[in-house]
Please model this.
Amino acid sequence: MGANKKPRKRYIPKPAVLPAGLRQDVAFEMPGFQASEAMGKGHFQEQHVYDLLSNADMARRIAPTGHAILAVAQAMVEAIAEIQARAQRTGTFGVNGDEMRVLREGVGKTMVFLRGVSNVEIARASLAAVREFNRTGVLRV
Model:
């Protein structure tokens, strides 16, 4: 009976668009959390600063006027600006206690906010950020 069976066709999953609000959370959230974990340690580097900045920038681009997350994101951006200015003067990336507190609390709060945002809003904000970067050549602070 097994000898005349046709070979099975290999299963290939069909590409699918995730429903709005559903994304690969680990890939989406991990860079910000890794950056907040690296603060105050020897392996904190420029890429971590950009990951934190992109988190704050995304929240600022998406949040409606007057939303409470805007103040959190702005405080993160100001802390990042201080880190970048100090790195330019000293040549090394480091954070002080106040900056670490603002950024660690901020990354958690902005992630909670961004989890509740639709994929469409995230896509629009990220496209706007990429267009701005391509036009100006810098990440907005």
Summary: The mean pLDDT is 81. The two ends are 70 Å apart (CA to CA). Residues 17 and 23 are 10 Å apart (CA to CA).
